[in-house]
UniProtKB/TrEMBL annotation:
Listed Gene3D superfamilies: Hotdog Thioesterase (3.10.129.10)
Protein name per Swiss-Prot or TrEMBL: Acyl-coenzyme A thioesterase THEM4
Membrane disposition: Peripheral membrane protein
CDD domains documented for this protein: PaaI_thioesterase
InterPro entries, A to Z: HotDog_dom_sf, THEM4/THEM5_acyl-CoA_thioest, Thioestr_dom
Catalytic activity: decanoyl-CoA + H2O = decanoate + CoA + H(+); (9Z)-octadecenoyl-CoA + H2O = (9Z)-octadecenoate + CoA + H(+); hexadecanoyl-CoA + H2O = hexadecanoate + CoA + H(+); (5Z,8Z,11Z,14Z)-eicosatetraenoyl-CoA + H2O = (5Z,8Z,11Z,14Z)-eicosatetraenoate + CoA + H(+)
Localisation: Cell projection, Ruffle membrane; Cytoplasm; Membrane
Originating species: Amycolatopsis pithecellobii
Amino acid sequence: MHYDRCFGCGELDGGLHMRSTMGEHALVHSRFTVTEAHQGAPGLAHGGLLACAFDEAIGSTVGNVLRRPSVTGKLETDFVRPVPVGSTLFITAKVDGVAGRKLYASAEGRLDTEDGPVAVRARALFVEVALEHFTTHGAPDALTKLKRAEQINP
Ligand SMILES: CCCCCCCC(=O)SCCNC(=O)CCNC(=O)[C@H](O)C(C)(C)COP(=O)(O)OP(=O)(O)OC[C@H]1O[C@@H](n2cnc3c(N)ncnc32)[C@H](O)[C@@H]1OP(=O)(O)O
């Protein structure tokens, strides 16, 4: 968790409540379980929420592997298989490269087990920002709030 009120990883009611774990070879593993609240078509996950889960999984990967403050500049998703309500996506993400402030990363999500069929792939460009990005555009006390989450979950 990088911030307790983050929609992706925080404690908010209705949030995605995702957690990430660093694995071997700098791969980062996250899980997203699709509930009734995440539906688009009846019984199926909404594509925008799946994109959100991948934004979170990749953002957490960039943050934890590179330890550079950054924001999503671009996020591309390939939805290759339907994701039913009740299923869990096992997401594995990695950093693909760094070019100055541009941080490239990607992820794939497999259905229900770590070696299940791939249902979603995503690629993202994160752009490194100064910490003032968060205090100027977000909340003046943003750094205190982010630091609090770091203390809960170092
Ligand atoms: C642990 C954390 C988990 C968090 C997960 C969730 C993360 C998020 O959702 S963050 C929220 C969503 N994202 C945002 O709000 C970002 C809003 N955008 C911005 O603030 C700015 O556009 C920002 C910071 C991305 C870039 O602006 P700026 O700092 O002026 O840099 P800028 O010069 O435009 O771009 C830097 C480089 O990135 C490239 N770039 C920026 N955006 C894009 C894009 N969409 N596509 C391709 N390239 C891009 C530029 O071309 C430039 O490349 P080069 O250096 O080769 O010329």
